[in-house]
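Q: My labmate handed me this sequence with no annotations at all. I'd like to see what the chain might look like in three dimensions before we decide whether it's worth expressing. Could you predict it?
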Amino acid sequence: MIHRTEIRSLLAALYPVAALLMIAPAVDLLGTTWPLRVSQAGWRFGSLGVGFGFIVIEILGLALAMAIAVLLQHRRTLRALSTIAIGAAIATTAGIARFLLDYSELRSLVPTGQSAQFDSTTLRALLLACLAVPVLAALGGRGWSASAPPTQGLWQDPASRPDYVIPMRFRDQI
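A: Here is what I predict for the chain of 174 residues:
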């Protein structure tokens, strides 16, 4: 039988795995886009497209870290991760807008024979980013509400909870 302390120890050891899932794609992105040339539309477009391709892995790492925080009841960690998720949703939305502006600027420069490939690659990156925004917002919102301190009510304390539930229609007859 596995003891509760061993389970908690294993869960805590998964935090670095989640961090690796979030940090490794960012390091890869930095490695492929270095040196930074933020003033060039082509560089911005390419780096955002590559970044949108990594977003699923980063969301997986964030979701894993949030699940660990919930299971270990690390409320502050969950609140911090929820803040990161909400910030990432906002940043991704801004990135989508910038990506579309750069696409409209660069589309006319693409040779006619390569326009279909350019459009399909752009659509794939844009689809991933657009799907990521509601996922990040949901993770952030649900994580934020789950990280709230528990209220002291009848149903919060397991010792005060009755062993049975009285159906609503019979409650007035008691």
